[in-house]
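Q:
My hope is that you can spare some time for a protein that puzzles me. I hope you can help me see how the letters and the tokens relate. Thank you; the sequence and its tokens follow:
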Amino acid sequence: MAQCLLSVQEFLQDSFIPQVAALCSDESEKLARKNQLSFCELVRPFCRLSTEVHMRDPNNQLHVIKNLKIAVNGIDTQPPLQAAIRKLLNDVVAANQPAEGLVPNVITAGDYDLNIGDRSVKASVPWYNCWKETLTELNKSKFYSATTTWFESYRESFFQCMPASDHEFLNHFLACMLVVSSHEPEPVEQFLKLSQEQHRIQHSNDYSYPKWFTPNTLKYYVLLHDVSGGDEKRADSIYEEMIQRYGTQGCYLLKINSRTSSKEADEQIPDPWSQYIQKNSIHSQDSDEDGSNAALLNRNLDHDVPVDGLESHEEDNLSNSLKTHPLDQFSDVGGSFDGLDNGRPPGAMTETKKTMTGTPHGSCLTLTDHDRIRQFIQEFTFRGLIPHVEKTIRQLNDQLISRKGLSRSLLSATKKWFTGGKVPEKSVNELKNTSGLLYPPEAPELQIRKMADLCFLVQHYDLAYSCYHTAKKDFLNDQAMLYAAGALEMAAVSAFLQPGAPRPYPAHYMDTAIQTYRDICKSMALAERCVLLSAEILKSQGKFSESASLLIRLTSEDSDLRSALLLEQGAHCFINMKSPMVRKFAFHMILAGHRFSKAGQKKHALRCYCQAMQVYKGKGWSLAEDHINFTIGRQSVTLRQLDNAVSAFRHILINDSKQPASQQGTFLREYLFVYKNVCQQSPDSPLPQLPLPYINSSETRVFFGHDRRPAEGEKQAATHVSLDQEYDGDSSQQWRELEEQVVAVVNRGVLPANFQPTQYCLSSNSDNSKFPFAVAQEPVTVEVSFKNPLKVPLLLTDLSLLWKFQPKDFSPKQNEELKEPISNEKDLLSKGKSFSDIIGTEEINEFLLNNEETKIARLKLFPHQAGELHILGIVYNLSTIQSANSLDGVAPPNNVPTGKFISNGMSVRGRHDLEIQGPRLNGTKEEKTSIQYGPDRRLDPIITPQMPLLEVFFINFPTGLLCGEIRKAHVEFVNVSKSPLTGLKVVSKRPEFFTFGSNTAVLTPLSPAASMNCSAYKTVITDSTSGCSALTSSVTPIDFGFGGRNQPEVVDIPLTDSVLAPGASVQLPLWLRGPDEEGVHEINFLFYYESTEKQSPMRHRVLRHTAVICTSKSLNVRATVSRSNALEDEERRGGNMLAFVDVENMNTSEAAVKEFHVVQVSSSSRTWKLQKSVNPTADKDTKLTSRERSKMCFKVVRCKQSCLGAEQPSDNYTFGDIVFGGEQIISSTTPCADFFFRSCLSQFKKKTLPHINGSLKSSPDEPVRLIQKCSEVNLNIIVLWKAYVIEDNKQLILEGQHHVTLHTIGTEALSFPQKQEPPEMVLLRFSKPENTAVAVRPSPEQLSNLIKTSLHYPESFNHQFHQKSLCIVPVTLVLSNSSQAEVEVIIDLRHKTTSPEALEIHGSFTWLGQTQYKLQLKSQEVFSLKLNACFVHTGIYNLGTPRVFAKLANQVTLFETNQQSSMPALIVINNM
């Protein structure tokens, strides 16, 4: 039970106090009514004595009575009605609510965590420590009240309203005050009349109520004198006459109303009556809380079963002056009581409340009058009541001794003799139902009970217990169960109240009494009285478990109010136990709240549910939470606490509900209904937050710009950025790098410090730390992710964005005035369109979310001015839909078209704020050790003034190409804004894929055949006499965007006057070349452009396009180059080479390619060129079908400018074309030269960058570098081809080209890089780096290229050995210096081959003359040395035996040239 203001002893003593009747004349009542009080109400606050009272018990022992309280009530000849008692108790409970500060508020229900580790823990486990924190919070909670004043008020009123019964005398009147006014003409006669009236009521058979304690009731005569308006002398004389007649102990003169109107009105007099008057007043409760009071009473009166066990009695007519029962609060001001005024309207109740609460009590009384009343009660008690009680106790004791002496003692002796002493008590179930047994008033058993009650009232608990114990035995023997239960009840209370506690509290007495009252006597009121008494006693002894079970056991269906109060007290018992049971507390608070609700106590019901919610909240018991929240919402609606109701229903909807669809539909309808009422009460308030649907704010995406245009015929718009694209981190980084690259080029190689990469689509993956830029007159699209957590569909209507806008001028003006910010919240509240000239707001009329569906909505804003925009949230109407085929919670058919949804009529308008948490900061130490989040500004764009807007369309852009295929397309650039556009550029990581042409595009006219065949190349008709000789031309890389500071990745797009006017468009040719690797290629183009106005904070704009090209296999070209054995050509120039080109058709006809034709082989180099084809065939072009291979050989010679002896080669590239067809493709013009420079030179640049970066670490010596340079070629081979494709029964001719870059002699080069096999995993080894640098030595291949040798001799030589035994053959040794430096050469002719195999195969011969020569060759010099070989036999001989050593001039290191790779020089010696 909850804590009480009174101790258990005080409560038990105040529950049973001496009852005194008051019978007043009409004049005396008028005197009391001057203070807005009846006489009984006048004396009620002073009925507790402040001093001790002494009396003598029957044994003449002095007995002290402490803190005695008496009750003075009017005489009512009718017992109270059941409905009246129910109404009074209901009003008492309703009037006692928690203080104003404790009004339940669902929204701020405290954060309350029970921290239970294991929910399967059993109740027997000592888990108090886990709940300790919970209990501390619960005790501090605003919902938890340690005291329950409503329960104490109920209990007090319950004891006061207990009707007197025949089986006990505790509520019987002990005395009667006869009150007469001194203003009456004959006061003494009036006393006689009142005395006779009292005698008639007590002793006449016409009146069975009220009950009187003794036949000779004490009469106490009170003369009431009005000091302010009466004759005091007359009052004194009358009082003297009364003393003579009744004695000083039987009468009293009470003077009141000393306060006159002449006294100051400001004098503050305490009002001790208010707490007594309002406690029992029905007017203290609002008449509109629980409906009409009359309706409640009529409902209760409709029941035939008596409530609370009180029997109904019929009403008779009696003078108004006698009705002063506590239930007289139902009567009018005159004190009449004739039942309830069922016809009184609620308005009259409210008016009565106002008059009573606003009227002060005791306005005519002074503090002296208060003391007089207090003295009057004390004199009455000391001189009248206590002597009368003492006398009555003595008389009863004497009567019992004389009457019971012989008979009772004989009977009891006989029983003891034959039964062995103690009489066995029968259980209640064995006893007969003899509750109807009545004793006559003079029965000895009743006299014992009367004496016991009298002793109990004067606190003589020892004697009372003895008498109760005796009476209990007698009643049980007679099986008078009603009397026995009463004796057991009071015996238990007396035993507990005995001073010094000589015996323990007999709880089993109470249990028997309760069971008897309830089951046998059918008196729930008496059983309830027992429970209230026993529970308080058990609680004082710390037996909270027994107290709780006792309270809960008495709950029943006959009284909701009683059951609610007892359940609540039982719940408090559970939480006050040594090991608190918090969940039992919560469960029983739920039960109590339910019974409170049935009893009409809505506020108490709401309070109970709120207290229980603290325990169930956040424990995963979603169904319990839903039930509690739903009930809290319902009760709050009844109490018109609509805000609390909205919050409660909101909790149901936002939790992860496990309810069925029908129940969720009910919850949602209730929520919408309540919400609508809240909005109607305050239509001008700001839009409230709606809990449904869920919005995942972090998934909100913002897109700046127009939607992408779809493809129109052959036109394909640039892909750019759209909300339909998924975020790709690698791709985003590539776009950023491309933009940084082009911005750096525009800014002369330096990236600006305030550079901010362009972001068109902002999401949780993008960098949102800076304010993004949006452009005026271009839409801002916000994509919001909605989720419907319910199993019922939701319909959102009139969906739009909520924003705030701050206009701002970005022009560099001074003293700019700050304009007022603008918001559309009020417009959306009234669904207005007033700010559309500043920010246009798009609205979605209908947006349906099916059951548990996640769906995105895209909402647009159209800013028309520059400034700062802040997107705050979303505004919409929330409603549900109804289907003709389904009930609540069942989704409508999926094929319901948009605009056909039928709302169920319940719709509310609200908002949902978009609050996005930024990324967690983790940069500094402080940020790492704390939890800090950075800003997320994706919803706060800066609107810049209007900018140019570029749209790019690709015309005839292919999706599939052969590897190396050349295709011509067109690009259209359109400026769709009102601002001119300039500085148009395009940047790509794959510059070898496309070209817009070069400066040489207009140098060579197109041939008719090229126009006829729609060729991408520029061609000319070749001379038939040219055969396979090369046609040469030369260009510079600068003409194609290479060389100098140009970056090949950034391409300027030529525009007329470099400006694209508003609305203008330009169409340019675009050549494409398929990548060399087969597969799917994504190639990114970034178009960069600027505005002619430089004042905007946005410096530039970009447009993205991703081209997806699928390439299939075509040709594979392999090439090698080697030096010719003929060291001199026809023009006596040395250094000629042979280029071997191997072309293979890798296509397997999957692309419907019939055959390939190699139509031309071109070369491009600064120093070399193709001169002619060495192996001309009958066909002019080379035809290759699937998997065929063709080998070609070409003579390579130095260019003319290279032969002039220039130290540095020219920047000009010489193109040599060897044509196999009838038309020459001019390889030095667009597009052939463009793709050559873009592919070959860009690859060469990539390969040389690491070499340049690492040159400082290990650079070879100068002689080694010179030797290495001898083997470098830097010759580029371009193979141009045509492919014949059959498609749709039509033959198409495709063109293409492959490039092979030959860097060194003897090294094979490929047209596309081979896939490298991943290296095998090896063990990791740790080694200490050595500081000594290893000298770099040239490789044998490089050494063999330093000095080239060639032997000139006859292939066969005839000699007559029989004439001359020695055959001498002249041989010329030609030496060629391939390096750019002077070389010293040593020629050793001595044989070093000693192996028998060599001798056997080639034989042996001898060089005649000098065996060693020392020569010095200048750069590129060719020297011939005349030698003689001597043979002695016929045979085949190898002349390649000279050993050549060479070293660079002025160098010490000597390198031997390796001649093993040269061809053998065989000579045949014949005999003639």
Observations:
- The mean pLDDT is 78.
- Residues 518 and 636 are 36 Å apart (CA to CA).
